[in-house]
Design a protein that fits this description.
The protein has ten helices and eight strands. It is α/β, with parallel strands linked by helices. The structure holds 1,4-dihydronicotinamide adenine dinucleotide and (2S)-3,4-dihydro-2H-pyrrole-2-carboxylic acid.
Length: about 270
């Protein structure tokens, strides 16, 4: 069965690369369409995927179609298309619900929140499916997500907060690391910023591996690093003072943005 991808921005491209890297989908069975054809051609040069002339062609040729456009482009695009009820439509958009998707497609629909880290076959794909999926469709869908990530089913109540932890997190972590590196250089200008960044990346990789390989809890790792009466303890005290309120604000602001997006999507449902 062919797998379709409409929209080749960050996430559409990640899916192409990850499905090819994991060998979950033979490249010739990946059928893609992007508004700007050059993006598709660049990917084709590397992966030998098939390029469709239109989004409709993707839907006509594929049993599963990942729609990877921006949230406000999802429903208008699906309304324009004529998609067989046999086709499983998967939206990756934040703020577009299963009910929204069921309103524009008569067949099976799912929602997945992928992460850019799945290009390295790591990270978590959050997903929620409609009741309309057959056992076979569900198994195939899970197989695809599991080939590129840890596939985690979540309720639509959980998905927004979980999105911040899994899908926004690579960007947020990069922001935290940049701030960490900049502060180090402000403190000690002799230290080169690029060296500070490289040190943090290597340290982050090592930290993640240690946590995972030894199945350490965060508290256990802290205990291992923070020598009693030592230096790290002082740093942790500062973080305890400043981070909780910062993260509370982060979740409040991202929730507001999710709410705004959902309102705009709902407006698209009522305009006709
Ligand atoms: N970037 C990320 O890490 C994540 C993004 N998402 C979701 O993925 C979706 C896409 O996000 P990005 O990839 O970051 O955006 P992007 O702006 O990089 O990509 C959107 C792509 O869709 C194409 N496009 C727009 N309308 C189209 C149409 N009618 N037909 C074909 N192609 C069309 C654009 O040319 C562009 O290449 C959003 O809905 C976002 O919520 C979800 C999880 C993570
Ligand atoms: O920032 C965004 O809107 C998308 C959804 C989650 C990650 N990136």
């Amino acid at each position: 069965m062919n797998i379709g991808i409409i929209g080749l921005g960050s996430i559409g491209q990640m899916l192409v690369k990850a499905f090819c890297k994991s060998a979950a989908v033979p490249p010739e069975k990946l059928v893609v369409f992007n508004r700007t054809r050059e993006k598709a051609e660049r990917l084709q040069a590397e992966y030998n995927i098939a390029i469709a002339e239109t989004a409709q062609e993707v839907c006509d040729q594929c049993g599963v179609v990942f729609v990877c456009t921006k949230p406000l482009d999802i429903l208008p695009l699906l309304r324009e298309l004529s998609v067989s009820a046999q086709t499983h439509v998967v939206s990756v958009a934040a703020g577009v619900s299963i009910a929204d998707l069921e309103g524009v497609h008569t067949g099976a629909v799912s929602k997945v929140i992928p992460t850019v880290t799945s290009q390295e076959l790591r990270g978590v794909s959050l997903y929620a499916c409609s009741q309309r999926l057959s056992d076979e469709q569900r198994e195939q869908f899970l197989g695809l997500l599991s080939s590129i990530s840890l596939a985690q089913e979540v309720s639509e109540q959980e998905i927004e907060t979980a999105t911040i932890l899994t899908s926004s997190a690579p960007g947020l972590i990069a922001g935290i690391l940049e701030s960490f590196a900049q502060a180090a250089v402000r403190k000690t200008p002799e230290l080169q910023i690029d060296l500070a960044r490289r040190m943090l990346v290597e340290t982050m990789l090592g930290t993640a591996m240690l946590l995972q390989k030894e199945q350490l809890g965060f508290d256990q790792l802290i205990e291992r690093v923070a020598t009693k009466g030592g230096i790290t303890e002082e740093g942790l005290r500062v973080l305890d003072k400043t981070l909780p309120s910062g993260f509370d604000e982060l979740f409040a602001m991202t929730e507001s943005k999710h709410d705004l997006l959902k309102q705009l999507v709902q407006k698209q449902n009522t305009v006709e």
